[in-house]
Every structure is written in structure tokens, then in C-alpha cells.
Amino acid sequence: MGTVGAAALAANAASFGLLWAYRLGDANMRSAWICTRNDVLGNLAVLLAAAGVFGTGTGWPDIIVATVMSLLALQGAMVVVRHALGELRTGRLAAAE
Fold first, then answer.
1. DSSP per position, 9-75
2. N or C: where does the chain have the smaller number of CB atoms within 10 Å of the terminal CB?
3. Which long-range contacts (CB under 8 A, 24 or more apart) does 13-16 make?
């Protein structure tokens, strides 16, 4: 679990670094950056959960991490939807002028 988690973290961190310059771009680029950010945070959380399960012998760390990751995904979705709606409004205003 740790080896795969560390490899996934390294790959996602590299993608995160490449997308950093585009984090304030259009809705598509922002979405890619937010998803990659969430993947990095998820990888870190999974590694922490694995250590927590190992240390406590219970499944609670997994449940806590799953809850946090679902909230993070919902937050990212809201940001992308708001950004896309803003782009749609701006596009409509530009077309009307």
C-alpha cells in the first residue's frame, strides 16, 4: 500500500507541478489543476490512513479520509461550476455587444 501510494503521489506531484502555471486558466485548465491537486491531497491522505489503520487496528482512519476526500471533491466541483458559469456569462455579454 505504501509503495503504490508513494508512486502515485510522485506521479501526481509531477503533474501538479506542470499544471501550476495554468491554475488560473479557463474552466478546463482550472478543472484539470483542481483534480490533480485533489489527487495529490488524496494520495497524502491515503498514506496517512494506511498508517492510521496500521497503528490503531481499526477502519476509522479510512472512513475519516474517505469523508474528507468526498468533501474535497465537492468543493472542487463547486469551484469549477462557478468558474464555468462565469465564463458562460462573460461569453453571453461579449456576444450581446
1. HHHHHHHHHHHGGGTTSSHHHHHHHHHHHHHHHHHHHHHHHHHHHHHHSSSHHHHHHHHHHHHHHHH
2. C
3. 13/40, 15/39, 16/40
Nearest to 2 by CA among 73, 56, 54, 69: 54
User: Which of the 8 DSSP states describes residue 22?
Assistant: G
- Mean pLDDT along residues 57-77: 92
CA 80 from centre of chain: 11
Statement: the pTM of the whole predicted model exceeds 0.85: no
Over residues 30-45, the pLDDT tens digits come to 889 899 999 999 999 9
Contact 40, 9 (CB under 8 A): yes
**Residue 19, C-alpha cell as written in the block:** 499544471
Residue that has been written with the C-alpha cell 465537492 in this structure: 74
| Cell triple for 87 | 465564463
